[in-house]
Amino acid sequence: MIENFADRLLGAIERAGSPVCVGIDPVYERLPSDFDNVPDPVRAIEHFSRVVLEIVAGIVPAVKVQIAYFERYGSKGVAAYERIVADALSAGLIVIGDVKRGDIGSTVRAYAAGHLERENSPDAITVNGYFGADGLAPFIESARRLGKGIFIIVRTSNPSAAEVQDFTDRQGKKFYEHLAEQVASISNGEGLIGEKGYSCIGAVVGATYPAEVQQLRKVMPRQIFLLPGYGAQGASARDCLGGFRSDKTGAIVSASRSVIYAYQQERFATTHWKDAIAQAARDLAADIRQTLDSEM
Amino acid sequence: MIENFADRLLGAIERAGSPVCVGIDPVYERLPSDFDNVPDPVRAIEHFSRVVLEIVAGIVPAVKVQIAYFERYGSKGVAAYERIVADALSAGLIVIGDVKRGDIGSTVRAYAAGHLERENSPDAITVNGYFGADGLAPFIESARRLGKGIFIIVRTSNPSAAEVQDFTDRQGKKFYEHLAEQVASISNGEGLIGEKGYSCIGAVVGATYPAEVQQLRKVMPRQIFLLPGYGAQGASARDCLGGFRSDKTGAIVSASRSVIYAYQQERFATTHWKDAIAQAARDLAADIRQTLDSEM
User: Fold this and answer.
1) Domains detected in chain A
2) Is this complex's ipTM strictly greater than 0.95?
3) Is the pTM of this model over 0.95?
């Protein structure tokens, strides 16, 4: 029998000891000077991403691979994305493809086939919920059938998020809460809830808005929250706490730039770039673990 | 000097005689029996798409290429998408890449580079506006600088659209109108409005909701509307009228399945599949043209 994605993810988090995820967002211009003699940017970002995977595989349970940085280079870049996802799976990591796809149902059927159903597809992907239930159905069907997961974007982590997403109805409900209610309602269907009580349909909630995170935890009790925004975008470990249930489960904190470009930080000025990344990944894991243990 | 995308599109529509666009949504399982002996689905959908381009290039001003049907096959499919986009550009068509990308600003910078700034990138792409202004800024910057266009999804054409997008505030304003207001306000920036008074930042508005189309025309006076939903999704030419201004400009009607799979329709049972597609494209162009001329 196929294991529910939520159970797989929670199991991996438990084994690794901290609910964190490293985001692979490789930007050619930010790579260490070792890559100055790799003139092909796709080869360079692929090689760099592979080294990052090797470094973090023993430290964190999961990685989130941002496809945009590969799509920057067209199909050649996408081929590199596929190899990185495959390598991350081989390394035993839970792999989230950060693709944020969304469309009408017939089109989403094709996206689901391409991003969840192929050999070496990621364990889960991020998706856009703006089209509503029929636009999500094929993703959910793939997740149910193959033990995969999806994370529906509910509240984004960027500065402009509120302008759009805080639109409020006469009862004071915000649009992102309305979307969260829809996510909660479609996530309880047959075959979606795992043994640990969570759905394979999770939510993306920006940790840069801690009050919203806390409130959304109540609206979506069975969703695992993918929390971007820690580190480079400004959220602290404490800002992430509201995403967890009182038993310290139910969320995974994702940090990208603050880990993979750690060697550009002052504190690592004299550290080899690989050691800087390793230390930043350990610091991320320890920070979230310790904050959960001391504050909850 | 670089010509504004809105002017280019309106010029192409004027030359072709009808504001219509054929959607390239190639599904292997629906191809004509000629393709039964092409066992590689990517080769088959690429070849089919190329034939469709050749047929419609003399009939319509624009095509919309849906990347999902290529992404279904991973990077190999994306390479085929790139070749089809390049061929459509060579054929003199205005090419809209239906990619619906959206993310935080730093990530969208990479998507803009990949989908608008490469050699043989489409003239315009569809994008998701849920992240707000900072998530759209890199797309807008590319459009301004390179004479490209973006169409921001405002109201989708699918059955579930209303569940999510009709969320209403205390003044009776719906969420999609709120989003439309944001689109209107960010589309008037310096260098975005062309000589004909339209912005290179357009909107996707589903023709399956004619009352909403008409109302959104008022909220977004300077946006060109990309209107999906005609044909297979059920919208008629009359349903599209509200998207046009009284001078019969300002919108482009997109039809996909009703044109490219025309040979599966009863009325074309004895027609060669290529002739069926050509006739369906001519019918689409004539239907929209005649409805505009007789009803407005």
Assistant:
1) 5-295 (3.20.20.70)
2) yes
3) yes
